[in-house]
C-alpha cells in the first residue's frame, strides 16, 4: 500500500516538474501575479483629479482651497467658472469631486456665522467617491480647527491610531489577502485539471487496471497537489516577505499548519469538480463557477461585514474566507493559536466533506 | 493510361530547423481512375505526403503539381479539386450525421436540388440513411469512417485522399469501404489510400512504399510480391508447440521471416535457399513443409531484410510449474446493461494457462465491454469475471495485481522519462525495493532501453514506445496480459517483434487476452470468441473458424472471410 | 464567367454553414450555456444581494475611562448612530484581544478627562484605534467618529446655549447619479464586462484549441473556405451568445435589482458590440498561439480575465495604481467598457466619455484582429 502510494506521488511530482507548462503555471506565474496585482489592489484613493468652483473672492476661501492643493490625494485641481462647468467636469469624468464655495463664504465666516461648502461627487465610482469625501471632510475639519484657534481654544478633533499597519501601507494589506487567494488558485489548478487531463490522455485507465484502490488514487492525487501548492505558496511568501517587505509577525509553523488544512479542503473541491467533469473545458468552467463566487464572498474585494447576515453565514463554509483571515492575522498581527484554530477546524470539516464526496464520486464513475 | 493527377518532383519536408526529416527528395506520380496505396511503417512520412498534396503543408524543396495546379500558388483551386479525409475523419462529434453533411455541402458550395440529390445518394451509398439524426460521436468506428468519406465526397472530387481510413474499423466495414472506393474509381476519380496494413496495399493497383521519408518501391503490388515467388512455405500439421517451431525456424540460417498463421507457421526463405526439413524444426511426425503462394507482406519483409531473429529475451523457464489445464481467465455469464441497452449478454468462456485468447467482432458489438469487464474497468451487471481464480468484483486489488494491461493508444506518461515510467509502474504494482530494481534492470536489458533511459516517453520512436508499454505492463510478472488492439496501425516489422515477445511469454505460461480488428493479428491466437450483438456467437481455433466458413465458392477462406461469413450467417439465422 | 459571379455568394454560404454548425455545437455543450446564462445570474445575484462596498454597521469597542454626563451623552450619540454596534468597557485592554481576533473593527477611547478636553483642551478628547490591516474600514471608522463628534459638539453647544464655538464651515456633500450610494448600482454594470470577457476570450480560445486537438481543423482547412470566412463563421455565434448574455444581465439588473438605466439602448448595443469584438479578437489571438485547451484556458485567464477584473475600475481604482500599471490598463478593453457601462447606467449619454471609450475599444479590437490575421495560418506548418 505504502509502496504503491509512494510511486503515485513521485510520478505526479515528476510529471509536474518535467512539463514546462505546469512548471510555469504552478511555480512561476503565482509569484509573478502576486507582484503585479499586489500593486493593483489598493483601497486607498490617490492621484485623483478634483474641480473647484470658487465664487468667493475672500481670503478664507483661498485658504481652504490651498489645503486641498497641498493634499497628496489630489493630483490635479481644475478651476471652474460656472455651475454648468461642474456638471460637465463630473459627467465627463474629468473630476471625481467638485468643490463649490459660495460668494458669501468669507463674509459669513468673518461675521461668525456658519458657511457652507458644497461637494459634488461622482456616484458612478461611489466607493472611491466616498473615500474622497472622507478626505475632504478631514481637510475641512482641520481648517475649522485652525479657524477656531484664532478665536477660542479649540476642541481638536479625533486622534486616530492604526494598529498593526500604522502608516496604512497598501502592500501590507494587499499581499496577505492576495497570497491567500493565489494559493487557492494554485490548489485548484493542480487538482481540478489533473484528473480531467489524465482521462483525456487515456492514462487514467492504466491507473484503474493497476491494483490501486480508488482511495489510494485519491490520496495519491491529493498529496502531490498539496506539496506543489505548498511549494508555490512558499515562493510567494518569500517574495512578499523579502522583496515586498511585508512584515511577518506571526508563527510560520501555525501558518503552514493551517495552510495544509486549507489546501486539503481546496484540493478536495478541485478533485470533486474533476470527477464531475468529462473533459478539460468542463473542468475549467466548473472551476470558474465555484471560484468566482468563492473569491467574491471571501472578503477579498469587499468586506464581509457589509454582507447581509445570511450571506455572512454562507461565508463560514468558504475555506478562502477563513484562510484570508488567518493570513492577515499571521502577517500583521501575530494572532494567537486559539484564533487560528477557530478558523482551521471549519476548513478541516470542509476538507473531510469534499474529499469523501470526491472519493465517493470517483468510485461511482468507475462502475 | 489514365490522366496523371499528381506529380511530385524531388520534394523534401522537415519540421522545424533541427526537427525530424519527414520526406527526403521524394519524386512520384499518382493517376486517376484507380487506387494507389501509400504504405509504410508509422513515421515513414505518409501523412506528411498527403498533407502536402492537399495543400495543407508547404514543401521545403521541390515542386508538387496537383490536378494541374501548383500547390504553392493555387491553394484555392486544389481545395476545390481534392477531397481529403484526415486520420480521425474530420467529423464534429456533437453534430448529427445530416448536420455534418450539410456543413460540408455549405463549405463546398453544393446547393439546391444538387445538394438534396447528393446527400440522398451518399446516405444510400454509405447505408447511413437510418441514422441521419444520430450524433456523429455516437456512431461506431465503421459508421464514422463512412460518414467521413461521405463528407469528403459531397462534391465529386478529382482526387480523393484517405489517411489510414481503416484504423479501428472492423473487417465488415473495411470491406464496404473498399466497395465504395471501387465505385468511385470506376467514375474516374483518383484515390490515394494510406495504410500500415499490407493486405490493404495489396488490393491497390499501384503502391508506393515509404520508409523513413524515402520511396523504396513504386509499382504494382504483384510485381513486388513475385520477387519472393517460390520462397514462401507453410509448416503444416504441427504436433506440439507451434510457437517453438516458429522460434526454431527463425533461427534456421535459410529463413528470412516467419509468422504464425493459424495452426501453421509461415516462412519466407532467403534467395536461393531450400526450405528447412520439418524434422529439423521438430514439428512432429505428421508435419510437412509445403509451398504456398506469396503475399505482398512477405515481399515487404524481404525488402526490409526480414524480422527479428530467434528467441525473445523473455524466453525462459516456465513459471508456476506449468499446470497447463488451470483456468486463468474465466467469463461466467458476463452481462452488462447500459439502461435499456444490453451491451454484453451472458458471455461465457474459459482460458487456460499459456493460451492466447482473442476477442474479435464488429465495432460496437460488445467486444470492448467484455474486455473491460474482464480487466476490472467496468463492473458487470450480472455474472462474474475471474482472473487467476479471483473474482474482480470481490477482490479487485488482488486480481488486478495478477494482470497486466496494455491500452490501445499509447497511454504511458509522455512527459516522464523511460526510467521514471518504469519506476512508476513497478511502484504501483507494489514491487518491493529489491524486486523493483531487479525487474527494472531486466526490462531495460530485454527491451534494449538503455540508450533511451532519460528520453521522455512521448518522444520515443513508435517501436520503442511499444516496447516500453509492454515493459510497463509485464514488469510485475503477471499471470495474464490484456492487450487492447496492441498493433493497430503498426507496421509488420514492429508487429513481428512485438509478437515475438508475446510468444516467448506464452511459452513460460503467461496467458494472453487480446482484442483486435486486424485479423492477421488474430492468426496468432490459439482460440478466439466472436462477439456479435452482445453475444459470443462462436468460438474456436482460427483454422476451425476458417473451416466452418469454407464454402464451394471460397474453399480457402482467410480469417477475414470467415469473420464476415460467420456474422452474415448469424444475421440470416436471426432474421429467419 | 458564371463561376466568378458566384464567388461572393459561395463565401456567404460557407460562412452561414459554419455559423450554423458552431451554433449547434454551442447549444449542445451545456458548459457554454452555463458561462453565458448561469454564471451571469450568479454574479448579478451576488452583487445584487450580497457583495457590496456599502458599509453596514461596524462593531467597535467603546472605552469610557471615567463615566461623566459628557461621556455618557457622547456614548449615546455613538450608540444611536447607524454606523456602529457598541460594546462598552472601562479599560482598553478589555478589547485588545478582540481587535486582534477581528471580532471588533476599532476601539474608541474616551479618556478620564474627556469633559475637560472636550470644552477646553488643546489635546484631542477622543482616541480611535483601528486595524491598519484593513485601511478602508479604518478610514471609514475614523471619518464617522469625526462626523459624530462634530455633530455632538454642535448639539451640546445649542442645548447648553453656550457660545462655545465660532461658526464653522459645513460640508454639504451631494453624490450625483447614485445618491443613495448603492454599490450595487455600479458593481452590477461592471460585472457584465467580466462575463462578456469570459465568453469572448475564454470560450473562443477553448473552442479553436479543441478543433486543433480533435483534428477537425485539418478537415476544415482542406475545404475551399478562406481564412476570413473561417474567422467570421466561427465568431458570429459567440458574438451572438455574448450579446444575449449582455441583454439578460442588463434586464436582470434593471428589472430585478432596480439599477437605473439612463442612457440609450442603441449606445449600449454599440459599445457592447465593440467590446465583444475586442474580446473575441483577444480570444482568437490566444488560440493562434495555443493549440491545446489547457494552455488556452490558462493564457486566457491570465491575459484576459484577470486584467478585466483588476484594470477596469470595476473594483480597484486605476488612478491609485503605480504608473506602470496604469499604462497597462490602457490596453485592457474592459477599462473602456466598464466606464461606458457605468456612465450609461447611472449618468446617461455623456458624449465625451462614450466617444473616448468607443475610440479605445475600436483601437484594441482592430489591433487584436490585425494581429490574429497576421498570425493565422491556412496551412498546418
From TrEMBL, chain A:
Q: Which residues form a coiled coil?
A: none
Residues annotated as transmembrane: 21-40, 171-196, 223-244, 250-272, 284-301, 340-362
InterPro entries in the record: ABC-2_transporter_component (IPR051449), ABC2_TM (IPR013525), ABC2_TM_bact-type (IPR047817)
Query: Where primarily located?
Result: membrane
Q: Which domain of life is it from?
A: Bacteria
What keywords tag this UniProt record?
Cell membrane, Membrane, Transmembrane, Transmembrane helix, Transport
Q: What is this protein called?
A: ABC transporter permease
UniProtKB/TrEMBL annotation, chain B:
Q: Which CDD domains match?
A: ABC_DR_subfamily_A
Would the keyword Phosphoprotein be found if you checked this record's keyword annotation? no
Q: Which taxonomic lineage is given here?
A: Bacteria, Pseudomonadati, Pseudomonadota, Alphaproteobacteria, Parvularculales
- Example GO molecular function: ATP binding
What Pfam families does this protein map onto?
ABC_tran
**Designated name of the protein:** ATP-binding cassette domain-containing protein
Q: What InterPro entries would the database entry show?
A: AAA+_ATPase, ABC_transporter-like_ATP-bd, ABC_transporter-like_CS, P-loop_NTPase
UniProt keyword terms in alphabetical order: ATP-binding, Nucleotide-binding
Where is each ABC transporter domain found?
Answer: 6-237, 329-558
TrEMBL record, chain C:
The membrane topology of this protein is:
Multi-pass membrane protein
Localization recorded for this chain is: Cell membrane
Q: Which UniProt keywords apply?
A: Cell membrane, Membrane, Transmembrane, Transmembrane helix, Transport
Q: Indicate yes or no for the key word Cell division.
A: no
Q: Which residues form the signal peptide?
A: none
Q: What residues form the membrane-spanning segments?
A: 33-52, 186-209, 239-259, 265-287, 294-316, 353-375
The record's annotation in InterPro entries points to:
ABC-2_transporter_component, ABC2_TM, ABC2_TM_bact-type
Note the superkingdom of the native organism. Bacteria
**Residues annotated as domain ABC transmembrane type-2:** 138-379
- Main subcellular localization, coarse class? membrane
Q: Which family does it belong to?
A: Belongs to the ABC-2 integral membrane protein family.
Q: PANTHER family of this UniProt entry?
A: MEMBRANE COMPONENT OF ABC TRANSPORTER YHHJ-RELATED (PTHR30294), MULTIDRUG ABC TRANSPORTER PERMEASE YBHS-RELATED (PTHR30294:SF29)
What is the protein's name according to its record? ABC transporter permease
Native source species = Hyphococcus aureus
